[in-house]
Amino acid sequence: MASLNKMTIIGNLGADPEVRYLDGGAVVAQFNVATTEKYTNRNGEKVEQTEWFRVELWNEQAKVAEKYLKKGNPVYIEGRLRTEVWTDKEGKERTSLRVRANTMQLLGGPAGSGQDDVAYEAPRQQQAPQQAAPAPARQQAAPQPQAAPARPQPQRQPAPVPFESNSGDDDLPF
What we know:
- By secondary structure, the protein is mainly β.
- It contains 1 helix and 7 strands; from the N terminus they run E-E-E-E-H-E-E-E.
- It has a single domain, classed as CATH 2.40.50.140.
- Helices cover about 5% and strands about 40% of the residues.
- The longest helix is centred in the middle third of the chain and has 9 residues, at about 60-70.
- It is globular and about 55 Å long.
- The model is unreliable at about 110-115 and about 125-145 (pLDDT under 50).
């Protein structure tokens, strides 16, 4: 049976990334991302609930994070949830969760830059083979002059749609 471990987070950075350069040339950036859900409870009170996620990026993505990510920036993250077990100062075994990101998208470029959102994706260790789509039949036409090769464009992610629950209490099963 196949399994899936995938996290998708859209939120804001709680602080500038902490970047470390490790022996052997690896680079790791760690930062917290906050997501906030806003809703109205049964009593008609507006409630705001914030969740914090610890995220890590490696190598080229870590360098991009160091250069561009700042506290408060909105960011889109895709990755895997990882469990880490460690021992604290008192000798107690502790567990924490971390998101190891493989895709990061800066949402909203720097103020006044006019830049679109830019996506950075980590190289995949193993990719499923892609099947080529059959080429459509072409009609013979007069040869056209060749244009200069196009610049490679950054990979774009679809614009995320924020979730807002507008269902009433009537839909709740309790």
